[in-house]
Amino acid sequence: MKLVCTQSDLSTNLSLTSRAVPSRPTHPVLANVLLQADAETNQVSLTAFDLSLGIRTSFSAEVLHSGEIAIPAKLLNDITTRLPEGEITLENESTSTDDPLAGEGSIVTLIPKSGRYQVRAMGAQEFPELPVIENTPALHIPAGALIEGLRGSLFATSADETKQVLTGVHLTVQQDTLEFAATDGHRLAVVQTTNESPDTNTETGLEVTVPARALRELERMLAHAHSEEEPVALYFDQGQVIFEWQNQRLTSRTLEGQYPAYRLLIPRQFERELVLDRRQFLSALERIAVFADQKNNVVKVSMDSEEQEITISCEAQDVGNGRESMSAQILGEDIDIAFNIKYLMEGLKALPSVEIHVQLNGNLTPVIFTPVGGFKMTYLAMPVQLRN
Amino acid sequence: MKLVCTQSDLSTNLSLTSRAVPSRPTHPVLANVLLQADAETNQVSLTAFDLSLGIRTSFSAEVLHSGEIAIPAKLLNDITTRLPEGEITLENESTSTDDPLAGEGSIVTLIPKSGRYQVRAMGAQEFPELPVIENTPALHIPAGALIEGLRGSLFATSADETKQVLTGVHLTVQQDTLEFAATDGHRLAVVQTTNESPDTNTETGLEVTVPARALRELERMLAHAHSEEEPVALYFDQGQVIFEWQNQRLTSRTLEGQYPAYRLLIPRQFERELVLDRRQFLSALERIAVFADQKNNVVKVSMDSEEQEITISCEAQDVGNGRESMSAQILGEDIDIAFNIKYLMEGLKALPSVEIHVQLNGNLTPVIFTPVGGFKMTYLAMPVQLRN
Asked: Residue A319's closest chain B neighbor by CA?
């Protein structure tokens, strides 16, 4: 194998794929990145796979001899990022991929403008195949819509690995939408993105739960997409999901288990409604959080419909207290309601609008936050018992 | 006590003083910042003191009633940094400082533009006095020279608390210079800053060792000084040192024990001399470090006087190897010499010039690095045994 590429192409693609390299590999070959060079197409692809999350990216290079080899990912990445801009020659002795021992125990040599680096590599044949999904039509979603869906749901997943299916985002394919849902049992975030070019042959009602870890990598990779209009192809299958665009592909196993019937949690009628400024509410909460941190994170929100304002307060015994008021459009009777301030703040951060709509019934039933504007997001937070 | 100040003045000064608040205070009052407000001068001062390092800063405010009180530093800082810009009123009930119980168990109220915060505070009389040094003439050093001295020495102090005196920087007052020295036993950094306006009555030959922690805070505070010309007054005493400028003061205890006679370690004659580009050397070392990390951090530097170049290399068994060559002006016979790559890189980062001068004798005797140019800095690194 022999190829010449630029430092920036190699470095950018290595840092993207390296995210799928496990920090404690169960098998030595998984600590590697699989490099495949094709002299016919002059394309180089890099693949990393931890047996759950897989990332493959490819880029153009001058490929003099085809070949494939598994190179220690961290070492190659550490050297490449430190090299100056310019061309790099990458080669190993064996140039034939027919030889079953090609690359086995061999040395890969990197020759940048100055210097020479050699890294002990492994045979490509030991590297596991990335999963493929065949005979399933793709769903196409613009990169921007996918990013919005991830941004509005990922934060609400559970970080507790024992909660299984709650550590993922639940995706539901509808006729002309893709719905994202995430809950950790205390709050729920649901985003509906519009699929503007619906595939007539896409199976609707299809549901999968994808690990948050894979979707965080997807979010990071999409941030580098050429444009928000870039279509991303989604392939769903039992146990596996694939996202593919341009020269990049991310595969992930799906989470097993029944996802909660979250749509039933969202009330349909409300006794009270508020409209208020999201940023003003959030920055007041950030200050009150200094006291709430000392007191189980509980914050009290009091509605005053006569003054058309809400008061946010926290009394932390032996430490101090804080209160702030802000104007709000209020419909319904006055009420005091308590929240875990972290859930309130995280939801407000993810809502994409200037003003938000808050809908509630009593002070122990679900409270719904939605953006004022076209974006379809629903955030549900459960109030907590008001002590004092 | 009652005062009105701006959010930015309070926040900036709190974040400077808070650095001297111990994370695990030995006495509850040390978790506080002492706030003193003087209605006559309209000045507010903030003091924090962990019994070793003390920081006091002051700023102008509208002081309506004089008073002093000890306020929980973290809480006050956390609230203040989150407040929007604008005026803040700070008050507590007691306005008399003659009352011995003033502020004891009292409440401080912060009233920003919107909202109201109350914090439980402690009496000022419990807060320990900052050390003072009387009847000792000050030494005056421009802020810029002090920053240069700290930047060129602090990195070479030992992080090992059992090494006592080596965890500090040794300061020596000379007729018209202040000398900074730091060593951890493996390398040594010495900087001489010129005192351009020597005080004729300053005692010369005075030596103290100041804890690195205090000097790091000094460096941080000086970065906010109005100009590099700003004179900083230094007061030295047995056991205590004080740095004072504008409205800021930093006090620190000094470290006890005999500092090593480091000047004797620097050879006066050399068999070999090199001049080379500092950045080029450093960036080659950063790449070779990827392999040296796998091999006791040892890097080999080989001189080739015929080619007028040096080669930097590392062979990490079972992993790989790297080598780079760069041009250098070389005087003396060829030699191979090995270093701990971290000590080499840290020294090169601290040297302030484009080109550096390297002087050595054999491959197991001290190697001296100096900047080419006016700046007076000496960096000494001990080579390590060359294995292979």
From this structure: B120
Using a CB-CB cut-off of 8 Å, the residues of chain A touching B83 are 287
d(CA B127, CA B377) in angstroms, rounded, equals: 41
Give the largest CA-CA distance in chain B. Answer: 83
Contact at CB, A107 and B283, closer than 8 angstroms: no
Closest residue in A to B110 (Cα) is A322
Q: Which domains does chain B have, with CATH numbers?
A: 2-126 (3.10.150.10), 139-262 (3.10.150.10), 267-381 (3.10.150.10)
What ipTM does the predicted assembly reach? 0.85
Encoded tokens for A136 = 């399933």
pLDDT per position as a tens digit, B371-385: 998 789 999 999 999
**CA of A286: which chain B residue's CA is closest?**
B82
Tokens of A22: 């496990």
Find out whether A69 and A106 touch, Cβ atoms under 8 Å: yes
User: What single DSSP character describes residue B384?
Assistant: B
- Residue B315, classed as helix, strand or coil, is strand
Q: How far is CA A163 from the centre of its chain?
A: 18
Alpha-carbon distance B83 to B212, whole Å? 33
B141, B361, B144: which is closest to B236 by C-alpha?
B141
Q: Which residues pair with B370 in a beta bridge?
A: B357
Tokens in use for A160? 């507790």
CA-to-CA distance for B77 and B209, rounded, in angstroms?
A: 31
Q: Which residue of B has its CA nearest to A282?
A: B82
CB-count burial class (<10 Å; 0-12, 13-18, 19+) for B104? middle
pLDDT in tens, A219-261: 999 988 778 888 999 998 879 999 999 899 999 999 999 999 9
Nearest to A379 by CA among A145, A181, A190: A190
Q: What percent of chain A has pLDDT over 70?
A: 94
Up-side HSE of residue B38: CA atoms within 13 Å toward CB?
9
Indicate yes or no: CB of A319 within 8 angstroms of CB of B119.
Answer: yes
**Alpha carbons B47 and B40: distance in angstroms, whole number:** 19
Q: Which of B85, B118, B276, B286 is most worth mutating to test chain A (most A CB atoms within 10 A of its CB)? A: B118
Q: From the CB of residue A77, how many other CB atoms can be counted at a distance below 10 Å?
A: 20
Residues 6+ apart with CB under 8 A from A27: none
Interatomic CA distance for residues B82 and A247, integer angstroms:
43
Other C-beta atoms closer than 10 Å to the C-beta of B187 total 23
Answer for the pair B71, B91: CB distance below 8 angstroms, yes or no. Answer: no
Give Rg (Cα) of chain A: 26
Are the C-beta atoms of B330 and B305 separated by less than 8 Å? yes
Tokens 């098998």, located at residue = A27
How many Cβ contacts (< 8 angstroms) between chains A and B?
84
pLDDT surpasses 60 at B333? yes
User: What's the burial of B333, exposed, middle or buried (CB within 10 Å: 0-12/13-18/19+)?
Assistant: exposed
Pick from B115, B120, B287: CB nearest A82: B287
